[in-house]
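A quick aside before the break. I want you to see a complete sequence-to-structure record at least once, exactly as it would be stored in a machine-readable document. Don't worry about memorizing anything.
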Amino acid sequence: MFRIEIDRDLCSGFASCVQDAPEIFELDTSGKATLRVTETDDERALGAAASCPMNAIAVFDLDTGDLVA
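That is the input. The structure line, written in tokens, reads:
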């Protein structure tokens, strides 16, 4: 399981996360990424974090608390 956080100060609304994992991410009315869920076992969260050009997404292992993406 993963816990996901978005640094909205870094987000510029490129929406690569939404394209990679629309079940997890969406854009709000200001055009910035928000989370549909904060915890998931969906590994697409890792790819979405990796694809963020602003490095605004952090993914943590829920069991260990380790940053994994």
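Two observations worth writing down. The mean pLDDT is 97. The chain has one domain: 2-61. We'll return to this after the break.
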